[in-house]
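Q: How would the structure tokens look for this protein?
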Amino acid sequence: MTDALTLIGDIGGTNARFALVIPGETKYFKMKIMKCSDFNTIYDAIEFYLNEVDTKSLDRIFFAAASPILEKNIKITNNHWVIDKEVLRQKYNLRSMSVINDFKSIAHAMGRLDKSNFQAIGKVKQHHFLSSDYSLAIIGPGTGLGGSGLIKRNGILIPSAAELGHIGFAPQNDLQIDINKVLKNKFNRIINESLLSGPGIENIYWALRQLNTKKNKKLSAEEIFRVTACDELAKQSVELFFEILGQVAGDFVLALGAMDGLLLTGDIINHYPDMLKNSKFRCGFENKGDYQPLMKRIPTSLVTTSEMGLLGMLWFSIKDVA
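A: Here is the predicted structure in token form.
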């Protein structure tokens, strides 16, 4: 195996995905998913991965991380890992390395997809890839709630990262106001990802039980989605989750001026596409008062391609070689 290998990674709050790239190639290989909680540090996880794939040396490292990228030391938002770029550079004697926000990486990947990768949510079809210029918004609930923007101007892609999950949640009706009040018993500040994430849907379910039965019954996000046919509050939780996701997505589109569309990604969305399609997502998205006619014209699409974070880092590594 060549010595000039590149390690790419997508580091989230729950899982870390690693893969290898041979410079000049347009595919990654030996991808593995590992739970962050199984390792004390990211360095332990990298060593475990390299032993698993029988790789001794690296030339470059490119990581996407679920965190704002502001300092040399990058704390992953929803787990205990810290990435010190200088430690990595010295440990592996790297020629090049970079760490970018995970949704900025996803935006890099979005710019290389075509119509086969998009599934319309609502009546308006995605068509930005037919245009030389466009502006898009990208969101995805997971362990947290990620968001990014993607602008194309004169053939140049300009991705940007956002901290959509940490914007304050704005309830839109009486039930959401009641849920917000209940959640204040758990949180000093209610943010979007307090409801729009894996832990977020668990919070919605807990709040609904407080409002309806006063009895605690803890279900995981997976369990809530699974029992919607026999648990009325689980069903209501899922309905609220998608409606609120639409509301926040619509606000995000307006804030970015992303009039060419909203793209939805992430494991939660891709595991339950039919629930999303049959939900009030578009209702929440379009419900913007005087701007409703405008919102009705903006496409919302599910991105069906998996491992978007790694795909973005693949393209990022190719760009670095070029």
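The longest strand covers residues 145-153.

DSSP finds twelve helices and 13 strands in the chain.

Upvote if useful.
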